[in-house]
């Protein structure tokens, strides 16, 4: 469970991983930029942490579902999303959990970096799905994350879950 720092809110996550894959079911309830948000998501990955499906439900809107082949091809409602070609990971803006996806998949050693094209989901003010460029650099205590001009030093636990996302989220123990 995480507590939001920048605005009132929290996230509850149920995460399971075994030899067949990874399933994350999350629920975020928050007040972001004056807007009440209740967002449920389900992310399914293969055993190598490559995202294969994402379902996002925002209260009051129809759910959205993306499916991927794990190699960078994505579909929504049976139609290929060519704008997302090459993306393996998904980043949902309102959850610290999705940073865990590339952290696990990449397995970077201290000092190593990786540049990624990711499926970026922005739920506020409306649900928008697009492509974004990100960079992860392994540090001694976690990861430096960057996208555009935004940078954050993420502290993670032994499972690769974000424990501190400065100014945005902190894990409740």
UniProtKB/TrEMBL annotation:
Which Pfam families does the record associate with it?
Glycolipid_bind
Protein name per Swiss-Prot or TrEMBL? Glycolipid-binding
Q: Which organism is it from?
A: Glycomyces sambucus
Taxonomic classification, please? Bacteria, Bacillati, Actinomycetota, Actinomycetes, Glycomycetales
């Amino acid at each position: 469970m995480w507590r939001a720092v920048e605005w009132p809110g929290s996230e509850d996550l149920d995460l399971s991983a075994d030899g067949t894959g990874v399933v994350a079911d999350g629920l975020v309830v928050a007040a972001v930029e004056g807007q009440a948000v209740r967002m449920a998501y389900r992310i399914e990955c293969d055993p190598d942490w490559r995202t294969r499906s994402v379902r996002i439900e925002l209260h009051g809107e129809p759910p959205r579902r993306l499916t991927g082949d794990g190699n960078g091809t994505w579909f929504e409602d049976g139609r290929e999303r060519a704008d997302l070609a090459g993306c393996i990971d998904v980043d949902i803006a309102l959850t610290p959990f999705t940073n865990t996806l590339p952290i696990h998949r990449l397995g970077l050693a201290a000092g190593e970096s990786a540049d990624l094209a990711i499926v970026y989901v922005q739920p506020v003010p409306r649900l928008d799905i697009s492509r974004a460029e990100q960079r992860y650099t392994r540090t001694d205590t976690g990861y430096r994350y960057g996208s555009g001009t935004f940078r954050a030093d993420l502290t993670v636990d032994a499972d690769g879950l974000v424990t501190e996302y400065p100014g945005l989220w902190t894990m409740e123990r």
